[in-house]
Amino acid sequence: MIAFFGMGLLGTNFVRALRGRGEDVQVWNRSPDKATALEADGARAFADPAAAARGAARVHLTLPDDAVIDDVLERARPGFGPGTLIIDHSTTSTAGALARITRWRERGITYVHAPVFMGPQNARDATGVMMLSGPRSIVEPLIPVLSPMTGKLVDLGERPDAAAAFKLLGNLFLICMTAGLAEMLALAKVLHVPPAEAASLFGHFNPTSTVVPRIKKMTDAAFEPPSWELAMARKDVRLMIEAASEAGIPLAVLPAIAARMDTVIAEGHGEKDWSVIAKDAVDR
Predict the structure, then answer these.
(1) pLDDT in tens, 109-153
(2) CATH assignment of the domain containing 132
(3) pLDDT tens digits along 169-186
(4) d(Cα 22, Cα 55) in Å, to the nearest integer?
(5) 244 lies in which domain range?
(6) What backbone torsions phi and psi does residue 223 show, to the nearest 5 degrees?
(7) Are residue 117 and residue 212 in the same domain, yes or no?
(8) Which of 11, 147, 66, 95 is CA-nearest to residue 155?
(9) How far is CA 243 from the centre of its chain?
(10) SS3 string of 18-72?
(11) 3 state DSSP class of 155
(12) What's the pTM?
């Protein structure tokens, strides 16, 4: 039997998928109505996390943050039996993940962090990406348990908090990408290009194909010869900022990028590849 805490969009759809595979699931949520709604799918809802955990071989979590996770687990602790396995799919700090691994190991309970790159439909369809890491004795038995929940299960090795770290790295990229798209639409407004027309750019131009070679250039610190000089990229940024400023449209991200470019140019790197703005991050 499985217990699941946190019936937001992700947790709800994980539970529906588990029920679809015939798993016996007990659920708890801080807002009880979200848990009771899953009784229509055959789950059993509980008002108390300890009661929901009682009898469960493993407890899955999709909760908001470290503080909530720690609070809920302490409340659920009386319901844990010998050998209960905690599998946390939440996005957390690396420090929080490490602290929970140590704390629960000292109590005789295995805590594993297995965050995901999934939306609600991914959870329902068992697609998307799930990550885990830690000692082989813990990770390897979990592979057949977790694989049915995801399209791709990524084992990141022995480092216990690697999954937490990679989740934050991925989310940072997604946040920056989304902010970049918002900035692009702001500039499109200035340039009198309707949003849908601006979006059509990606039918002709696929920037995702540049991600892998660009980050390799950064990690290798291969900033010469340039494919696009930093000084020329900075000129383009100036044109964008000037256009937005003249139209009274605020940009949130580009001015910060311009400031970073100015700093690196002032250090004498203007003729190097524009990816040199990453130099401080990859300095050895």
Answers:
(1) 999 999 999 999 999 999 999 999 999 999 999 999 999 999 999
(2) 3.40.50.720
(3) 999 999 999 999 999 999
(4) 17
(5) 206-282
(6) -90, 0
(7) no
(8) 147
(9) 34
(10) HHHCCCCEEEECCCHHHHHHHHHHCCEECCCHHHHHCCCCEEEECCCCHHHHHHH
(11) strand
(12) 0.94
